[in-house]
Amino acid sequence: MVSSKKNHDELSVKERIAKNKQSNSSTMFVEKLVPKLLLLCATLSVLVTLGILYTLLSETFTFFNQVSVVEFFTTTYWNPWRDSYGILSLISGTLLITITAMIIAIPLGVASAIFLSEYASDKVRRMLKPILEVLAGIPTVVYGFFALTFVTPMLDKIIPDLSFFNALSAGIVVGVMIVPMVASLTEDAMGAVPNTLREGAMALGSTRLETTIKVVIPAALSGIVASFALAMSRAIGETMIVAIAAGATPKFTLDPTQSIQTMTGYIVQVSTGDVSFGSTIYYSIYAVGTTLFVFTLIMNLLAQYISRRFREEY
User: Are 231 and 105 in contact (CB under 8 A)?
Assistant: First the structure.
């Protein structure tokens, strides 16, 4: 009876070893497979990016075979239905929206980040930050109608000559939309500053405000400025808010009370219209899209440069 029990234990051990070998074999197979799947995903992402670039550039070259590059980049009158392609009016509209948005987003975002990082308790921070980030999840079409039906009538009481479609209300609401981006990235950058710096400043007699302004913000400057650049890139590429609230009047102006048109707004207008495939107007959306791509690429590269150039390592 004792011998039978011994054989049973030996058999169980063998089975266990075999099972472990099988399990290890499966684990090794998964370990070898996962990097290949990840490489495939990364390669697909790069190929999709290259495909988008190829489509943009090839159609843009077709457009510039029909329209002068000099006329496109140096004239200010944009009316494709009359063969006038001066993109400066679309660029001025885009910059008007972006500047207005940044005037709203930077003070509100940085102030929110300072409060969350330096003054709020853990309980308050855990409650307020998700609420603030909910703003980033609201569909932009909702922001667009909010600008048109709420912000514009409010501004009209202050500015009587305000156009129904105008750059001011659209820019303000774009700024509100990107506040969570500025606040979240800035708060992350300030949170990465070691507490020893804060404690050292306070040990020398600095108040919390002095510590924040003279120690924490300079130490987190690279992340803060990078958040500004990324937010600006987001504002440049915003589509629905400006298409709904800013109007569709290409105009070379710096007056935010007027109706304007941005580069993204023009792309939406043509894409949803009755423009025939292969016409010059059809190819113009790719030229505008390429210009927009260059703008956002420059902003992203600028954000990366600033982040590397002013990074503080502790």
Answer: yes
Taking the CB of residue 294, how many other CB atoms lie within 10 A of it? 10
pLDDT (tens digit per residue) in 257-303:
999 999 999 998 888 777 788 888 999 999 999 999 998 888 888 87
Both tokens of 233, joined, read: 């890139």
DSSP string, 240-257: HHHHHHT-S-------TT
d(CA 199, CA 143): 42
Return the closest-CA partner of residue 93 out of 249, 213, 221, 208.
249
Q: In the predicted model, is pLDDT for residue 8 greater than 70? A: no
Q: DSSP assignment of the chain, as one string? A: -HHHHHHHHHHHHHHHHHHHHHHHHHHHHHHHHHHHHHHHHHHHHHHHHHHHHHHHHHHHHHHHTTS-HHHHHH---EEGGGTEE-THHHHHHHHHHHHHHHHHHHHHHHHHHHIIIIIS-HHHHHHHHHHHHHGGGS-HHHHHHHIIIIIHHHHHHH-TT--SS-HHHHHHHHHHHHHHHHHHHHHHHHHTS-HHHHHHHHHTT--HHHHIIIIIHHHTHHHHHHHHHHHHHHHHH--HHHHHHT-S-------TTS----HHHHHHHHHTTTPPTTSHHHHHHHHHHHHHHHHHHHHHHHHHHHHHHT----
What confidence tier does 23 reach under pLDDT thresholds 50, 70, 90?
low
pLDDT in tens, 215-248: 999 889 888 988 898 899 889 988 889 989 998 8
Average pLDDT over residues 170-176: 94
